[in-house]
Specification:
By secondary structure, the protein is an alpha/beta fold. It contains five helices and nine strands, in the order H-E-E-H-E-E-E-E-H-H-H-E-E-E.
Length: 269
């Protein structure tokens, strides 16, 4: 099919999805119904770069990959674009402002996790988010590779859009799309083929964001003093919602302002 025709078909499908309230449904790894409020297609997620130089390239690659719209192996209806801007946070606590994702790295210590992503939600809407990359483990030969750094960065960024994991068993074979690509949202003991989103991830984003536009959202409640806890400590993540080999991989904690903090974890082996 000629490229121009493919784009026309995609545009007609987008119009239909907005008018009829439907969207492609070839994937099912959204987390609840959490999403950023938006009133246009596509929409842009602002990501603050608080990273040291060895991490910056991986965030830049992840931001580009998550915004792809090629219709051959991705999805022309991908609604997400990522704008990486200078960060507004310190590596500790990596506190995000309303409407932003803050990305930080530091030697967070021997806490068991390689990377964290946290989304603060009110109702169904994500109102702020953070990512943390733990240099304690990435200093080890096992994880100090481009593949592991890209895999963890790309997966944690995907969580900040409302995506969960495609699969949560490190021993399973990669979940491949029609072009033979694994996914950064699939747990893998060897991430060489899992450093970027694949078509199932773009399809899921189209499903999450393709059905409706949001009315202007009210200003979210501020994070209360009592909710300014240490998010690096697993004891503060709340109740585990999903497990792999007896360890929680997604947690939810109710906040005093009526919202929730959802924490996604990649554990070190």
């Amino acid at each position: 099919m000629p490229r121009a025709v493919r784009r026309l078909v995609a545009l007609l499908a987008l119009v239909a999805s907005i008018l009829l309230g439907v969207a492609p449904a070839s994937a099912n790894h959204a987390w609840a119904n959490y999403h950023w409020a938006r009133s246009q297609f596509p929409f842009t997620v602002t990501v603050g770069d608080n990273l040291t130089p060895q991490w910056t390239q991986f965030l830049a690659t992840a931001a580009t990959d998550w915004g792809l719209t090629d219709g051959v192996c991705n999805n022309v209806l991908n609604p997400v674009r990522v704008s990486v801007v200078p960060g507004n946070a310190k590596s500790r606590p990596c506190k995000p402002a309303t409407g932003r994702v803050e990305v930080c790295n530091a030697r967070y210590g021997n806490r068991g996790w390689l990377g964290l992503a946290g989304i603060y939600v009110q109702g169904d809407h994500i109102v702020r988010a953070y990512m943390k990359l733990n240099d304690y483990y990435f200093a080890l030969a096992q994880y100090d590779t481009p593949a592991w750094r890209q895999y963890v960065t790309s997966q944690e960024l995907g969580h900040t859009f409302g995506l969960a994991h495609q699969d949560e068993d490190f021993s399973n074979a990669d979940l491949l799309d029609g072009c033979g690509r694994g996914s950064c949202m699939d747990y893998s003991a060897d991430p060489a083929n899992n450093t970027a989103p694949n078509q199932h991830d773009y399809d899921q984003l189209a499903t999450i964001y393709g059905g409706h536009f949001d009315a202007p959202a009210p200003a979210p409640a501020a994070i209360a003093v009592e909710d300014e806890f240490d998010v690096e400590d697993p004891a503060n993540w709340g109740r585990a919602q999903r497990f792999d080999r007896g360890r929680g991989v997604v947690y939810e904690r109710a906040l005093s302002n009526g919202g929730k903090l959802v924490t996604f974890v990649i554990w070190a082996e």
